[in-house]
Structures are given as C-alpha cells and as structure tokens.
Amino acid sequence: RSPFFNNREEVVRCYDALRKYYPAFKSKQLSEEIIFDKVYPGKKFSGVTMRKLNSLSTNLLVDFLGIKNFKNDVYEYNLKQLEGLHEKNLTSLFKKKAAGIEKLFRNGKHTFQYYENKFKFTYSMSSHLHFKDEKAMALNLQNEIDDFTEYFLAIMSLLYFRSITVSRLYNIKYDLKFFDEVVKYFSDHSLKDTTICWLYFNMAMLTSTVDEKYYSELVNSRNRFDSRLSDIDKYNVYVTLHTYCINKIKTGEFKYRKLLIENTKDLLEKSNFPGGYLPPYTFTGNITVAAALKEFEWADDFIGKFKAKLDPELQDELVSYCESFIEFYKCNYEKSIRHLSTINLDRTIMKLHCKNLLLMNYYELNYHEELISSLDAYRHFLHRDKNISEESRNVNILFSSHLLSLLKVKLSFRKAAVLNFKKEVEGNDYFRNKEWLLKKANELLKIKT
Description:
By secondary structure, the chain is an all-alpha fold. Helix content is about 75%, strand content about 0%. The protein contains 21 helices and no strands. The chain has helices at about 10-20, 30-40, 45-70, 75-85, 90-105, 110-130, 135-170, 180-190, 195-210, 210-225, 230-250, 255-270, 280-290, 295-305, 310-330, 335-340, 350-365, 370-385, 390-410, 415-425, 435-449. Helix 15 (about 310-330) runs antiparallel to helix 16 and helix 17 (about 350-365) runs antiparallel to helix 18. The mean pLDDT is about 90.
C-alpha cells in the first residue's frame, strides 16, 4: 500500500481479493476469472491483463523479500545508511552512525559477512576522510589493508575447505589458486586470533592432510572462539571433527569413538542446528557409537533430551532404529528385532544398517534357517538395487559373505576353520561390523578349546 514501493492500485485490490483464501488457497471461488472480476469490476476477463497483474504482484513480492532480508542484515543496512549520509555530506550524523557501527562490530559474531562488511566500513571511512582529514585517511589505510587481508583469508579458507571436501565426494579436481601461498602465509604469521580465518584454515588442513595436530587445534580454537561463532560455523566445525573421527574409526582406531561422543556433547550444549532440526545421522550415529561403548545411560539420556529436535515425520522411525541398537548391545536380541519390525525398510534412510542388524540378531539367537534365507535375499538385493553406491554395495557384500562363512564355521565346529575365518576377516581393511565378526569367531574358539 505504500506509494514509495507501489503506485498500482490494482495490485492492492488483487492482494485484498486473495488474502481471504489464506492459508489453504483451495476454495472453489479461487479462480482467475473471479479474482479478475474483483480487481476490475465490470470489465471483460483478459488473460493478458491477468498475466500482467500476476507479474506486477510477483515483482512486488520479490522486492518485499529483498528489502526484508536487506534490513535483517544489520551490517549491510547500517553501511548503506552511512553511505547515504556521506553522499549528503551530513558529517555530524555520519560520525554518530559510524560510532554505532563500530559498536556493532565489537559485539558481533565473526561470520564471513562480518569480515566483508568490516572491510566495507573501513573503506567507507577512508572515502569520507579523503576530503575531510587527509592525515586521518592515510592512517586508516593500514586498517583497510588488514581488514581486506582477513576477509580474503577467511573466504579462501572456506573455499579450500569446501573444494577439498567436495572433491573427495565426487572425484572432481579443483585448481586451488593461492593454496600454497595461503598455507605459507598462515605458517609465517600469527593468525590464531582471526577466528573464522583460523577455524576454516584448520578445517581445510585437517580434511586435506588428516594430520591430528589440526584436529587438536580445531577443538581448542572452537572452544576459545565460542562466543564469537555463529551456529552454522559451530556446526561446520562439528561436522569436520565428526567426519575425521568416523574415518579414524573405520581404520580401526576406536579411541575416536569417545572423541566423537564428546564432540557431539559440545555441539548440543553450545549451538542450534541449521534448518531447526537435528540431522538424522547426527542423532543415530552418536547413539550407535554410544551403544557399542555400552554407555547405555548416556544413550537413553540423549534420546530423551533430543528426540524432540528431530523432524517429526522421521522421529518415531529414528528412535526405533536407535533403540534396536541399544537392545542389541544389551544382548536383548528379541527386543532389538521388535524395534526393527516397526521401521519401514523400504523407506528408511538407514535401510542397509537395519538389514545388517537384523542378520546379526538372527545369528545371536541361533535362528539359522532365517539367517540363511535372509542372507540369500540380502545378496540379491545388494546386487539389484541401483540406488546403492558402489562403495556401500561392496562393503555390505563383504559383510554378508563373511557372515555366511561364520555361520558355516559355527555349524561345522572345526577349530582350524575358525582360525582361517579369523585370518581372512583380519586381512580386510576395516569395515562396519568387522569387530563383531571377530568377536563371534573368538567366542567359537573358546568353545572349541
């Protein structure tokens, strides 16, 4: 309705005609012809005019979203006001606004937008001082250089981190311009207090080198910078540390299970999650690790505290999935199966893990016929389903093959066969459930001796 934004009265009439159908917009009275008649009473319906009205309304909506988001960006909004005061040569108001912006920077979170706008602010100050106080402008020039350097290093560290991560997921090789120079600059200068720069540099280096010193520095820096970090940056640090721990666990370094749990505790205590919901694998991954460590009290407490943070559509299924692992590691195999039976295996995002756990439960319960039948169906499924990645397919085929061998060894009851089985499993790189297979083989050896 503001003439500053809209001088077309028909758009206002269109809005008034539409809003009574909010939020469902499913009324039989909602048609282009009826809306047209309310906007242009007495006129014959025109598709061309209606399309123009839609275009005007949509453009106004897009303007609204842009202006709303612009005002929500407190730095950008204040900087544009400062720029306007400079253009109008309103020096007194300019100084007052500049002082307020400096306070914003002192108290603000150190995001990438923070570094970008801090440089823009320093540049605006130099532009204003250029004709007012040339000596002050000259002294401010070093601040411009320093602020731009921090902004450049922050953005490049982010881009390196993203590129290294994505290249491993999709086997894409990127030209990491200035990478060696940036690494050398970080090595030659003390940048441990530059917050985002230092965090993302360590995230990039941890991802590319897998050197544990970057893990330790990343944990220490996250804790040191906690009050300056946004939730999304805290979450990115968490994911980087979490991925590192998972990869270490996959190589058989099980001390990282406890580090993974500690990392999650820290995240849950200090930040919120992007999108408002706790990511499914963050929830289930920590429960399955805790269950394997037999930290059942912690796992139960975790579910009680954080299941409400899950997407409501997935909550029941994810909790059942977690409970099935807890009961399995408590040796309550029938209860574990009951929890699995409540999960729709055709839909769940943890389909393969559920199938593997069901097979393990059958083995523990000596349900040999069910196990043999399920293993046969599982192998066909793994070969047939095109949605399974090649890596995941191979790992799960390996597990199912070893499980079938374990069952044959168990039924044949020969010590030499058990030893050969152990040697074969140990010869493989670490894969999910490798520990369990070896544990079952050792149990058979104790029986035979």
